[in-house]
Amino acid sequence: MKTLNVNLGDRSYPIFIGQDLLDDAQLFSQFATSSASFIVTNTTVEPLYADRLEASLKANGQQVIRIVLPDGESFKTWETLQTIFTGLLESNADRKATIFALGGGVIGDMAGFAAASYMRGIKFVQIPTTLLSQVDSSVGGKTGINHPLGKNMIGAFYQPIAVIIDLKTLLTLPKRELAAGLAEVVKHGAIADHLFLDWIESNAAALNNYDLSCLEHVVVKSCEIKSAVVAQDEKESGVRAHLNFGHTFGHAIETGMGYGEWLHGEAVGCGMAIAAELSVQLGYLSLEDKNRLIRIIQTLHLPTKAPQWDTSKYLSYMSHDKKAESGQIKYIVLEELGQAKVQKVDDDLVISTLKVAGAI
Ligand code: NAD
Ligand code: MG
């Protein structure tokens, strides 16, 4: 087992990464409380992994209550959040209760927000079971739900007390979900560590094949990169924005296609290809490095060809991005592979980029 630390002063927490951690009752003993443990999960993950987690908690004398939610982004809503609160209240959960979020990013975001607001805040532990949640969403403390008028619009910064990553849960993940997680892995290399990007390029086939030691490496590296960024800028007033590389174009594709058509990671893969083109247009990235990044994304079975729309459709979906401030979009571009920066860009240049990328 490897242990990393997210350094946030009195809100610091460990990330444990290893195989079969769900069965490690000793590891879970540190979370034993005088109150109950609540496993928040969904109907897909519960039959796969909840029994093992429950056994490890019970081995430490904990009373365990399960709250099982329907599966899907479309359930990341106020109504589902309310069912978590109902479950907690019906079992008389008190301030010492702990929530264990067992599932992908949807479960982690919702259970985290429930923990942030139930009795003004109870402890929670992230147990991410998708690659995307292991390399991205479980670290950093962004929690929340969707509103019919916008994704992730209601939420809170609320850090877990620990993240427990059992790599073997990835073995049941569908191929498309694995690839979607790899998009965020590539992003970490592209914005922060060109040697890591080299490594991904050399080990792409093994990653596509669920090789656990390769997956361990990308989870460890990604958690290191993300937690270093979060430790510097927890609430995204500066460098944390670099984590949005590929996301402005990606969100436009995701929303424009209708949610669920493209997975988030697929849209980010394609968004990174366009953002790399923008970096070329700005005179930063060489054509050769852009093409190399696109090849890496493709090798991981992610799309790089954007849907073709009117210019106005792209620009309008992009300006709806939450990261736009007073209408002005800040783009994340690459100065070189492994080095990102924030930049305001004239619409003209964005339009010529979309043209070269074949999106309009
Ligand atoms: P998800 O939670 O919907 O999981 C994808 C699918 O895989 C679901 O059907 C799920 O039930 C299933 N699943 C989960 N673990 C499994 C396993 N081990 N084996 C088989 N199936 C499994 O999607 P996701 O990609 O994990 O997360 C996406 C969500 O994360 C979005 O809501 C997004 O907004 C959020 N997110 C949050 C942050 C953050 O910083 N908080 C960052 C990125 C994404
Ligand atoms: Mg993302």
Structural account:
The chain is of the alpha/beta class. It folds into two domains: 2-172, Rossmann fold (3-Layer(aba) Sandwich); 175-356, Up-down Bundle (Dehydroquinate synthase-like, alpha domain), CATH 1.20.1090.10. It has helices at 25-28, 46-58, 78-90, 105-117, 131-137, 175-192, 194-202, 204-208, 212-232, 247-257, 264-281, 287-299, 311-319, 347-356, and strands at residues 2-6, 13-18, 37-42, 64-69, 98-103, 123-128, 142-147, 150-157, 162-166, 330-336, 339-344. Strands 1-2-9-6-5-3-4 form a seven-stranded mixed β-sheet, sandwiched between helices. A two-stranded antiparallel ribbon has the order 7-8. It has a two-stranded antiparallel sheet with strand order 10-11. Helix 4 (105-117) links the parallel strand 5 and strand 6 (123-128). Helix 5 runs parallel beside helix 6 (175-192), helix 10 (247-257) crosses helix 11 and helix 10 (247-257) packs across helix 13. The longest helix has 21 residues, at 212-232. Magnesium ion (MG) binds at residues 136, 184, 247, 264, 268. Nicotinamide-adenine-dinucleotide binds at residues 42, 44-45, 48, 71, 73, 76, 103-107, 109, 129-130, 132-133, 136-137, 140, 142, 152, 169, 172-173, 177, 180, 264.
